[in-house]
TrEMBL record:
Name by which UniProt lists this protein: Holo-[acyl-carrier-protein] synthase
UniProt GO cellular component terms: cytoplasm
The family this protein is said to belong to: Belongs to the P-Pant transferase superfamily. AcpS family.
Location in the cell: Cytoplasm
């Protein structure tokens, strides 16, 4: 049963401007593993798309949980990795043992968007 749906769209240029003003912005948003992955990407453009996509998926997750990013849930509480086929997968301390999160991330030249669906699984 679906218990939450979240959607977020981020302007990539806006994320770039945030990064210029706050050079540690990516450290606030990305977990250590996500930062390591971002560092392996070949171009600054691709790294910025990655950051914008991860930012969008974390905001979408927070919306699906109904909490938003704040005191109860931080960016560091949400980690997105890719399965071998490329599908994003989310881990978070905010997911109950009976919950699963499913994500989709997309980019264009201007925006990154993410949708997250949280389901109650099992009985």
């Amino acid at each position: 049963m679906i218990i939450g749906i979240g959607l977020d769209i981020v302007e990539i240029e806006r994320v770039g401007k945030l990064l210029e003003r706050q050079p540690r912005f990516h450290q606030r948003v990305l977990t250590d593993r996500e930062q390591e992955k971002m560092a392996t990407l070949p171009t600054a453009k691709r790294r910025l798309e990655y950051l914008a996509g991860r930012y969008a998926v974390k905001e979408a997750f927070a919306k699906a949980k109904g909490s938003g990013i704040g005191k109860a849930l931080s960016f560091q509480d949400i980690e997105t990795r890719n399965l071998s086929g490329g599908q994003p997968t989310i881990t978070s301390r905010m997911l109950g043992d009976d919950e699963a999160a499913f994500a989709s991330i997309t980019h264009s030249a201007q925006v990154a968007a993410a949708q997250v669906i949280i389901e109650k699984v099992g009985r």
